[in-house]
Design brief:
homodimer, 331 residues, 3 domains, globular, disordered N terminus
Chain lengths: 331, 331
């Protein structure tokens, strides 16, 4: 599995230490590699491909829910519990609305300062950083990089669902859905079909009135769904007060144990692998197509020079697809 | 441009009338075609490809902004103004969080009932409908279908930005950003770089305190940005009270007139065509890859039969890509 096998892209000699340093758990190498991924640098992709043999060990935990539900605070409290259990953790907070590196800059700083002296915690916000469409790929690569660097637990925090490319359920082993105590949030989640993807429910801000009602709503909805081997627990917690966080972590661990015993972990990972292969092929086709339409090609010239004739995107796309075989020479 | 030229897919004989009826402005044919698009039925794609020569006439207006900002109400009020000006309109409300056809079902019903007797108004909510990743393609196709059916104005309403595949600025001629009167929303939009994509700003709920402050914040941010030939107006409106909606529509029309005069319309459409070609190629590669990994292929068998060996998604993706040339036979 030498460098260069990912369609002609290999990482630079100068980055060779990056792989070794990252595998050795070096935090700066990890941060550098994730920055390359966020910049959609082909070297990151080559690095991730190279490191595949060292991945697959981490427990991937997705935390999702509506904005304002307290996801970040819950993740922060979870990180503390995970560390108390003696395990290392990496957090990726995905914020597609931010084109900046910082993402939720302020939130991050607060969290960073709290865990700043702890090398067992690595927190990173990922924004779109101007590379629209690349966030899903960057997030996947960041997960692999954290995994290869030896983090025991990787927490991926995302806003809501509906971001097709970032479907948390196709990225993680265990999905935690954080709900607000208002029953409106529960009803909305039921309607949107989010309940189906959750392995653990957390009604956050449980000190507010309405939490128990929200819990019952979810319980009823779960009871009405077809019975599954794993019965997702519905927990009350207050992330701000750090109450009920231990049980949340134990539920996450129970789910992982269940997945291992039932063969579900293998199944999820197989499905994830399949989705990743599909995504990688689509992304590479997108890059090829971009080069074709922006380059000195018949389609590219047609797109640039055409002044008034109507061009049909469907036939142009067929033309670009027909160009593809020639690219095989690259491999 | 006969049927069948889009990579072997042609629409059914029984759907032949659909094209004719849709071109004649038949509302049921339009609704049927958009349903096919939403279902990601290959016949919809073939139909859209076939109808390309009849598109390009409509004014495409994107309306975006944070949830809760009153986008739907504003669109509803705009529709009334557009109709008063004697023009026909199609509305596509994109709600990626909804896996149901209905999208914001209740909101739709309210709006439908108001415009229900008016054949000059066509409103459609698009949800993910279980086809993750297909929403962007379905939305693009729906826009083409409305365009071909002769709608003068097509309004595309989307939640916020950051949905790479659904970037409103790459779908529309004119982008309207709806802001809440709270300055927090303005600041957030400035931070997220949304201001740059807007051609018209609307501070909604202008009867609430804070609207004027929000307007000034945006004005300052716009003043600090590099000067552009088009100075985006910042308007106050109250969609609920239907106050200030006329000026919003006039600003949208002014922007269109500006684009026509400056050559910007051609430029935007060229860029849109380019992005669409890229998206079409990527989507078709995604479909091919899905068939490859799920079918009776070496990669498909490997993914299904492998029990414990670690498989590398990057080398599997390279294998799938290498399979592609064989597909050329289909064309």
């Amino acid at each position: 599995m030498g460098p260069g096998y990912t369609a002609g892209v290999s990482y630079d000699e100068s980055e060779m230490n990056l792989a070794g340093d990252l595998l050795a758990g070096d935090v700066r190498a990890l941060a550098r590699a994730i920055s390359l991924a966020e910049d959609r640098d082909p070297q990151a992709t080559a690095l991730v491909a190279e490191l595949q043999a060292h991945t697959g060990r981490a427990h991937l935990v997705g935390v999702t829910g509506s904005p304002g539900g307290g996801k970040s605070t819950l993740v922060d409290a979870l990180v503390r519990v995970i560390r108390e259990r003696g395990r290392t953790v990496g957090v990726i907070a995905v914020d597609p609305s931010s084109p900046f590196t910082g993402g939720a800059v302020l939130g991050d700083r607060v969290r960073m300062s709290r865990h700043t002296l702890d090398k067992g915690v690595f927190i990173r916000s990922m924004g779109a950083r101007g590379h629209l469409g690349g966030l899903a790929a960057a997030t996947r690569e960041a997960i692999h990089l954290l995994d290869a660097s030896g983090r025991d637990v990787i927490v991926v925090e995302t806003v809501g669902v509906g971001q097709s490319e970032l479907e948390i359920s196709s990225l993680c082993d265990t999905v935690v859905l954080v709900l607000m105590p208002e029953s409106g949030d529960a009803v909305q989640s039921i309607k949107a079909g989010i309940l189906e993807i959750a392995d653990v429910y957390v009604v956050n801000k449980a000190d507010l009135s309405g939490a128990e009602k929200a819990r019952r709503l979810i319980q009823d909805a779960v009871a009405m769904a077809p019975k599954k081997p794993w019965q997702p627990p519905i927990l009350l917690a207050s992330a701000v007060k750090e109450e009920g966080i231990g049980p949340v972590w134990e539920a996450i661990e129970s789910h992982r144990a269940f997945l291992r015993q039932s063969g579900g972990l293998e199944e999820r990972r197989r499905e994830r692998l399949k989705q990743e292969v599909i995504a990688l092929v689509a992304e590479s086709a997108r890059d090829d197509a971009r080069r074709a339409v922006e380059g000195d090609t018949p389609v590219g010239r047609l797109l640039r020079d055409n002044r008034n004739g109507r061009l049909n995107p469907y036939s142009l796309a067929a033309d670009v697809r027909a160009m593809r075989p020639a690219r095989g020479a690259e491999n």
